[in-house]
Design goal:
single chain, 145 residues, Nucleoside Triphosphate Pyrophosphohydrolase, seven-stranded mixed β-sheet, 2 helices, 15% helix
């Protein structure tokens, strides 16, 4: 089963979400959390560190597991999705791969058209089952370009 990791990066009670580009081969313009596929020789944390460096130009320093669940898009291989809070990171967040990056309140999350695989975590955030921390525990740099 293909494993995927995703980061819930938070700052002052806001959550970072990313919109896929219009020319994305799968699910163009859908919203998602940064992250990606775990390579066979990687741990979840190694994969998340690599993906966040590639997509946002940051180095994740402190991660906390939130939840995992299986998901399968129609006609595709099954996925195992793993979500982590990123409480601390080094660097400036830069948009390296997406159409847009936004910081949102958890109350706004259901107004965005997320990937179907993210719908479970989106519902958990919206319902308050997962609470977005009010502050980063010590993010070195908290700005987004």
């Amino acid at each position: 089963m293909l494993k995927v990791v995703a980061a819930l990066i938070h700052l002052d009670g806001k959550l970072l979400i990313c919109q896929r580009r219009a020319d994305d081969a799968s699910h163009p313009l859908k919203w998602e959390f940064p992250g990606g596929k775990v390579k066979p020789d990687e741990s979840h944390s190694q994969a998340l560190i690599r993906e966040l460096q590639e997509e946002l130009g940051i180095q994740a320093l402190e991660m906390e597991f939130i939840c995992s669940y299986p998901f399968q898009y129609q006609g595709k291989n099954p996925l195992e999705l793993h979500f982590y809070f990123v409480h601390d990171y080094l660097g400036l967040i830069k948009n390296r791969q997406f159409a847009k990056l936004l910081w949102i309140d958890s109350a706004q999350i259901k107004t965005f058209d997320f990937l179907a695989g993210d719908e479970v975590i989106v519902e958990k955030i919206f319902s308050g089952e997962i609470i977005i921390p009010d502050a980063c525990t010590g993010c070195i740099v908290k700005l987004m370009n």
